[in-house]
Prior knowledge:
Blueprint: E1 2-7, H1 17-32, E2 35-40, E3 51-55, H2 60-69, E4 73-77, H3 84-90, H4 92-113, H5 122-139, E5 142-145, H6 148-157, H7 162-167, E6 169-171, H8 178-182, E7 193-196, H9 205-215, E8 219-222, H10 230-239, E9 244-247, H11 252-261, E10 264-267, H12 276-283, E11 287-291, H13 296-299, E12 305-307, H14 312-324, H15 338-349
Parallel strand pairs: 1-2, 1-3, 3-4, 4-5, 5-6, 7-8, 7-10, 8-9, 10-11, 11-12
Helix pairs in contact: 1-15, 2-5, 3-4, 4-5
Amino acid sequence: MKIALISRSTLYTQPGGDTIQVNSTADGLKKIGHEIAIVLAGQKLPEDVELIHGFNLGRPADLLPYFKNFKGKKALSTLFVDYSSADMNRYPTLTKILGAHGIEWLKTILRGLNNSDTIPSISFLLQGQRRSMLRLLSLSDVVFTSTMSEFKRIHQWSKPQGKSLLEKHQVIPLGVSSLFINTPINKKERSGLLMVGRLEFLKNQHTVINWANKHNWPLTVVGAANKNQKRYAHYCNSIAGPTVTFLAHQDEDEVLKLMDQHCCLVIPSLFETYSLVGWEAAARGLSVVANDSADMSESLASVANLIPIENEKDFVAAIEAGLTEQKKSQVQFENYTWDHISARINRAYR
């Protein structure tokens, strides 16, 4: 079958977790025998496509032009991030006035105006964010979430979809690259704390940077600045003490090497739908400490120590324990490779 995977126009210029998900899904489906094309928002669909699979419900302006016009089967991976906790800190007055959906509608427009993304269509401008997302859900034949918690969040505000959304929904987690599972673990002595993720307010790196200064932890921060949040990246650099090292975005091979050099991965994000980096770190034998927030409380329960980030005392204690003792996870990571996940997606297409 010829399948088009559709994602944001900045998938490769601003790589993130969805970049890994789209590329890994493509590779897994190719192994099964499908012909795969990755289409970035604004690009034309190849001819003879039999199924389209869109990524990111929160960016309906990217996906709706394809979902409205395509006559074949349509699948949607929601990847639905709730930015409201970060937005309430960054734009408290505006968030109260516009609400969570209104803020996302405005962000879409501003990204188009500052040329960091594609210009949204007139229909999106008129419909708004929430109605556009509802339309996208209604046009999808199958809807994937990575956790049940993610589905419940979507179902809560999309009640007009009712039973039909439940009937076409499936929970399929993200996969772990076989590189992190099968590469022999470096037995050399490890040290220090690691954070991996794009530098942006939602990821909350500044909190751990401040703690690293306070407790003299050696900390490596890996990730590129969000192009629309350069002030945040500058702030993180400005507050960092001598024990903090910043590295730009790294490919999988380099991330694996860094994981083998460190003791503990910390995920202080205010929100994550599915923290894949936590699973990758656990597969490499690191201790993982993460904020106990939706949907991480579900997706990381079997591989991480989950502590509310507001509880500084307990979170710091968990990090310090992770810096001194590694505990091998009992998870059978071989059952969570992208090959397994892609096979489940393939069955859901039918």
